[in-house]
Write a structure and sequence with these properties.
The chain is an all-alpha fold and 282 residues long. Helix content is 78%, strand content 0%.
C-alpha cells in the first residue's frame, strides 16, 4: 500500500471514528437535546447567518480568481462560476471532486492543464494558511496542550523555511504575489468565525475569543482530513471536544449540528448566487 492509499485509509478511519463519537454524544445527550426548543427568532437568525456565510464564500471565489490570475488571464465570468457551481461536489460525490470540477470548468480556456493543477494546489495550500494566520492570536484560548504543539509546529516551519536557501527565496518571491489572494481568504475566515460565535451564543453564552479559536481549529481539522466531504464528522467532533471545555456537552453537540446546518445553507446560497450572476452576465 503506497502513501496515498495509506493517507486515504487513515482519513476515512478518522471520519468514521469522528462520526461514531458524534453519534455516541447525540445518543448520550438525546434527552437533554430534545429539551432545547429554540424559539422561532433563533431559527430566523440561523437562516440569516446561513445567507451571510454563503455570501462570504464569494471571498473564496475571488481568492480563486486571484490565484488563477498568477498563471494566466481568465475573466471573473468564468472563474467565479467555476468555484460557486461546483460546491455541491464536495458532498456528492465528495472529497476533492469540487476541485476537479473547477479544473474541468476552466479547461479550453486561457490556462494549460499544468497551470490549472498548480492553481488548484496553491488554492488548497493558501486557504488553510489564512485560517492558521487568523487562529494564531486565539491559540491561547484552546485547551492545553494544543497551543504549545501549534506554536512548536509553526516555529519549526518558519525555521525550516528560513534555513533553506531555496525555500527562503521562494517565500520572498511568492509572498507579495500571494498577498492579494490571501486577504480574501482571511476575510472569509473572519466571517466564518463570526458566524460560529453567533451560532454558539444562540445556544449558550460563550466567550467570543474561545468560540473563534474553536471555529478555526475545527475548520482546519476537517479540511486536513482526507476523505471527509466538507470536513463532515471531523469538524463536528472537534467542535464538541473543544467547546465542551467551556459549555455543557449537550450544548456543544447542538452547536456543532446547527453550525453544520448553517454552512450547508451557505453552500446552497453561494451556489445560487453564482448561478444568478452567471445568468446575469449571459
Amino acid at each position: 500500500m503506497n502513501l496515498k492509499h495509506l493517507t486515504e485509509v487513515a482519513g476515512f478511519a478518522l471520519v468514521a471514528a469522528s462520526l461514531a463519537y458524534l453519534g455516541r454524544e447525540i445518543l448520550v445527550y438525546h434527552d437533554s437535546l430534545s429539551l432545547h426548543s429554540l424559539p422561532v427568532a433563533i431559527w430566523t437568525r440561523l437562516a440569516a447567518l446561513g445567507f451571510v456565510y454563503g455570501a462570504a464564500m464569494l471571498f473564496l471565489a475571488e481568492q480563486w480568481h486571484r490565484i488563477i490570475g498568477l498563471f494566466g488571464e481568465e475573466p471573473r465570468r468564468r472563474t467565479w462560476p467555476s468555484y460557486t457551481s461546483t460546491l455541491v461536489a464536495r458532498y456528492l460525490p465528495g472529497n476533492v471532486f469540487h476541485i476537479v470540477g473547477r479544473m474541468a470548468w476552466l479547461r479550453r480556456g486561457g490556462l494549460s492543464d499544468s497551470a490549472l493543477l498548480r492553481s488548484s494546489a496553491l488554492e488548497l495550500a493558501l486557504t488553510p494558511v489564512a485560517a492558521g494566520i487568523l487562529l494564531l492570536p486565539f491559540l491561547p484560548f484552546l485547551p492545553q496542550p494544543i497551543p504549545i504543539i501549534s506554536f512548536v509546529i509553526a516555529a519549526f516551519i518558519l525555521i525550516a523555511v528560513a534555513a533553506h536557501p531555496r525555500l527562503r527565496s521562494l517565500a520572498f518571491s511568492w509572498l507579495p504575489r500571494l498577498a492579494p489572494a490571501l486577504i480574501f481568504g482571511l476575510a472569509f475566515m473572519a466571517v466564518l468565525a463570526g458566524v460560529f460565535v453567533a451560532v454558539a451564543n444562540a445556544v449558550s453564552p460563550v466567550a467570543p475569543q474561545s468560540a473563534v479559536a474553536v471555529a478555526l481549529g475545527a475548520w482546519l481539522a476537517g479540511y486536513a482530513t482526507p476523505g471527509a466531504p466538507g470536513g463532515i464528522g471531523v469538524r463536528e467532533a472537534t467542535i464538541v471536544v473543544l467547546l465542551s471545555q467551556t459549555i455543557s456537552p449537550e450544548s456543544a453537540v447542538l452547536v456543532a449540528l446547527l453550525f453544520r446546518g448553517v454552512t450547508i445553507v451557505g453552500d446552497v446560497v453561494c451556489f445560487l448566487l453564482g448561478t444568478a450572476a452567471r445568468k446575469a452576465v449571459r
